[in-house]
Amino acid sequence: MARQIVNILEDLVGELSFTEKISSVSDDGEKSTLLVCATHHARPCTTISIDTTEYMVLSVVDNESITVEGVIPSAVEYTIAAPKYFHGTRIDTHAERSHLEMEDKVPAVYLWEIVREKFNREPDAYIERESDLQIFFLDDADYGESNDFRYTNSIDPMRNLANDFISLLESKPALIGKLTNYDMVNHAIFGIFKRDEGHVDNFFGGEQLSGVELSITLPILKDLNCTNCN
After folding, report:
1. How far apart are CA 31 and CA 37, in angstroms?
2. Three-state secondary-structure class, residue 51
3. How far apart, in Å, are the Cα atoms of 211 and each of 19, 44, 60?
4. From the CB of residue 175, how many other CB atoms can be counted at a distance below 10 Å?
5. Among positive and negative, which fits the CA dihedral 163, 169, 172, 178?
6. What is the rounded distance in angstroms from the CA atom of residue 120 to the CA atom of residue 114?
7. Quick count: other Cβ atoms within 10 Å of Cβ 37?
8. DSSP per residue over 191-230, as a string?
9. pLDDT single digits (tens) 4-38
10. Closest CA to 109 of 19, 222, 216, 36
């Protein structure tokens, strides 16, 4: 039986943890600034790990530096944990998230259901199906702040995460077929959108979120290594 797309996505999201080299470290006695080539989805008020110790992020310069609380004498690399994963309709996912603390909600990759999939029954076809997906990369936001603030602190790191997800898909040639195109949309306010009115309601009740929407048709390849197939 073909694997459910929601489970395939869950495994992929679990791989969105990254360890990056640190070029140099400087400190002012209270905080340390790490020069890095990739900041991924790091943002203020989240944590990164250095030598198994977690440090609170104070500020980020996108794909240049991360400033953390505390003095770090030296460091070779940092690690950022994978985001949380959710899937379901708006109502079901809102109900699931309503029981969680904020640190267990974001950053998040959310697969909006329902999902339409087109299966290929040709025996010699190498693509098993094409899955039409709407995926949101979401993080905490403050709607009282400026649009520029939400871009810097939410949308930019979520755009990095979305791009990391695309790179991950492209690194799975045994699972994912060639990607030819996809759409991305920034959401400074993640909510119900009406074209003439803008966002008229938060998507998940009182949650203030910003992020990036990815619309993509994912070609899932047949498992040619399956040993239990009839």
Report:
1. 20
2. coil
3. 23, 15, 16
4. 16
5. negative
6. 20
7. 10
8. EEEETTTEEEEETTTT--EEEEEEEEEEEEEP-TT-SS--
9. 999 999 999 999 999 999 999 999 999 999 999 99
10. 216
Which domains, and CATH codes, for the chain? Answer: 5-14+83-221 (3.30.70), 18-80 (2.40.30)
Asked if 60 contacts 35 with a C-beta cutoff of 8 angstroms, the reply is no
Nearest to 106 by CA among 42, 192, 34, 10: 42
DSSP 83-125: PEEEEE-HHHHHHHHTTS-GGGT-SEEEEESP-EEEE---TT-
Strands 84-88 and 108-112: parallel
pLDDT less than 70: residues of the chain: 1, 192-201, 224-230
Task: Report the distance separating Cα 136 and Cα 85, nearest Å.
Answer: 10
Angle (deg, nearest 10), helices 156-170 and 5-13: 110
- What whole-number distance in Å separates Cα of residue 190 and Cα of residue 14? 23
R_g of the chain, CA atoms, integer Å = 19
Q: How far, in Å, CA of 193 to CA of 203, rounded?
A: 9
Could you tell me which of 151, 186, 154, 161 has the C-alpha nearest to residue 82?
Answer: 161
Report yes or no on whether pTM surpasses 0.90.
yes
Q: Give the whole-angstrom CA distance, residue 222 versus residue 176.
A: 9
Token pair for 120: 């290929």
Tokens, residue 165: 């997800």
**Contacts made by residues 45-51, CB under 8 angstroms, sequence distance 24+:** 45/140, 46/107, 47/81, 48/78, 48/79, 48/80, 49/78, 49/79, 49/80, 49/81, 50/22, 50/75, 50/77, 50/78, 50/79, 51/75
